[in-house]
Amino acid sequence: MNCLSPSILASDFSKLGSQVELLDRAGAQYVHIDIMDGMFVPSISMGFPVMKSIRPLTDRIFDVHLMIQEPERYINEFVDAGADLLTVHAEACTNLERTIQKIKEKGIIAGVAIKPSTPVEQIAGVLKEVDMVLVMMVNPGFGGQKLIPGTIDKVWELKQMINEMGLETDIEVDGGVTLDNVGKVMDAGANIVVAGSAIFHGDVEDNVRQFLSYMSE
Ligand SMILES: O=C(CO)[C@@H](O)[C@H](O)COP(=O)(O)O
């Protein structure tokens, strides 16, 4: 099934609660929550208190993208704050296998993310262990960037690798995804689409519905 994961990083934080409720009402299956530490990426975004405050507002999947150095230090806290899916960056973990195992032991969905410059081969060793691979279509750290065209080839490559291994791993794409290019990334093999600016600029409910209708075609 194809799923939409609106990134609340692009939302109006002064009314975050009602924006999350809008996403739910419009039918988005996931809520994408970007956690940045100012080290792995230059910016700092939000943390456990924000997650806890919006958790009671929806039962949609909390898709938490950890852009933090050594994420293994905080797995328990993010699960306690309501994460259903935790994604760590291959480039940020001291021991990627152990970190993924720790997420799975908590009984939630485990994802691994790669930056545009990281080859898909770098995660071949953990592909059997993860439920999802997040392919960054922009350099992580900020919303509102343009999708880097070469990253679409990486999605094709990853999809081929997943098929060759006989797996059914989900592929999530994140960064610069719009209604104009979502068809291309889905053709390449992505089935979970993160969109920030394209959802939160304008009428949020209408944008979610447009994405969902496009993605179900
Ligand atoms: O992880 C990130 C940015 O680092 C993304 O989740 C962005 O927040 C997506 O926003 P747009 O590129 O769609 O505006």
From TrEMBL:
Annotated positions binding a divalent metal cation: 32, 34, 65, 174
E.C. numbers: 5.1.3.1
Catalyzed reaction equations: D-ribulose 5-phosphate = D-xylulose 5-phosphate
Domain of life: Bacteria
Any Gene Ontology CC annotation: cytoplasm
Cofactor or coenzyme needed: a divalent metal cation; Co(2+); Zn(2+); Fe(2+)
Gene Ontology terms describing biological process: pentose catabolic process; pentose-phosphate shunt
Residues the record marks as active site: 34, 174
CC cofactor note: Binds 1 divalent metal cation per subunit.
Binding site for substrate: 7, 65, 141-144, 174-176, 196-197
Cited InterPro entries: Aldolase_TIM, Ribul_P_3_epim, Ribul_P_3_epim-like, RibuloseP-bd_barrel
GO molecular function terms noted in the UniProt entry: D-ribulose-phosphate 3-epimerase activity; metal ion binding
Pfam families: Ribul_P_3_epim
Transmembrane segments: none
Keyword list, A-Z: Carbohydrate metabolism, Cobalt, Isomerase, Manganese, Metal-binding, Zinc
Enzyme class of the recorded protein, top EC level: isomerase
Pathway: Carbohydrate degradation
Family: Belongs to the ribulose-phosphate 3-epimerase family.
HAMAP family assigned to the protein according to its UniProt record, in alphabetical order: RPE
Function noted in UniProt: Catalyzes the reversible epimerization of D-ribulose 5-phosphate to D-xylulose 5-phosphate.
Protein name (database record): Ribulose-phosphate 3-epimerase
Provenance organism: Roseburia zhanii
Gene behind the chain: rpe
